[in-house]
Amino acid sequence: MTIDHEAGTGLGAGEATPTDAAATGQPAPIELTEAALEALLFVAERPLSRREIASLFIADRADVDARLGDLEVSLRERGIRLLTSGDRVELVTSPEAGAAIARYVGSDAIRLTPASLETLAIVAYRQPVTKSGVERIRGVDSDYSLRSLVHRRLVVELGRADAPGRPILYGTGFDFLERFGLTSLDDLPVLDAAVAARLAEEAEAAAGDRPAIGMGAGATTEDDDAIQPSLGLDLPDDA
């Protein structure tokens, strides 16, 4: 990849010159264009926060939000997407290009087991959630599934719960959004009414310390294929 560092020298009326910026000890503002923003996200090796972007360009947060919105629209018909997770954004490949990219990189991904997929769906819809919270819904030990999902970076540690023992809080990361072709958690499919009711019941159980709720009758093991609630998530063919 070649980066052109040559910059234009034209200045509009009232714009600060490099000399003016040096005199004040402040860096000169950079014009926040859609193209400049796309280039920045392209070379970034990690997701960038909106605050970082505003600081780099010396721009208002509202202007950053507006340019990100423009960029998101421009990329909809291309092979790149703007991925948003909370305050952070990054460029990723589109789901439609997944087959070609997988062939190029020689993908040998192993499919998620039903238990892992169920665990992932619960984390996605209930985050931030602890391991015990996941197990309360599933009715089985979920340690292996969670560790597997963390290893694949589909699930990440968000922090610690303010509860005895300070258990880890889990949520989904950028890799989850990218794998499922989502631009943000707002794009998650609407839950089936029965499943939504069960999740609400689990929340009440957690608050009232009621017995655990199992998602399947007689479920006792991590690999029970019968425990497959309709949580609305479908993995791509190469997952």
Overview of this protein structure:
The protein has about 240 residues and is of the alpha+beta class. Among the domains are: about 25-95, Arc Repressor Mutant, subunit A, CATH 1.10.10; about 115-210, Winged helix-like DNA-binding domain superfamily/Winged helix DNA-binding domain (Arc Repressor Mutant, subunit A). Helices cover about 40% and strands about 10% of the residues. The strands form two sheets. A three-stranded antiparallel β-sheet has the order 1-3-2. Helix 2 packs across helix 4, helix 3 packs across helix 4 (about 60-75) and helix 6 packs across helix 8.
Principal-axes shape call: globular
The amount of beta strand, in percent, is 5-15%
Radius of gyration over C-alpha positions, nearest whole angstrom: 23 Å
* Count, helices: 10
Total strands? 5
| Major beta sheet summary | 3 strands, antiparallel
Which class best fits the helix and strand makeup?
A: alpha+beta
State the strand order across the main sheet.
1-3-2
CATH topology label of the domain at 114-208: Arc Repressor Mutant, subunit A
Mean pLDDT: 76
Distance between the termini: 29 Å
The CATH first-level class of the domain at 114-208 comes to: Mainly Alpha
SSE run = HHEHHEEHHHHEEHH
Low-confidence stretches: 6-16, 207-231, 235-239
**CATH-scheme architecture of the domain at 114-208:** Orthogonal Bundle
CATH fourth-tier homologous superfamily of the domain at 114-208: Winged helix-like DNA-binding domain superfamily/Winged helix DNA-binding domain
Proportion of helical residues: 40-55%
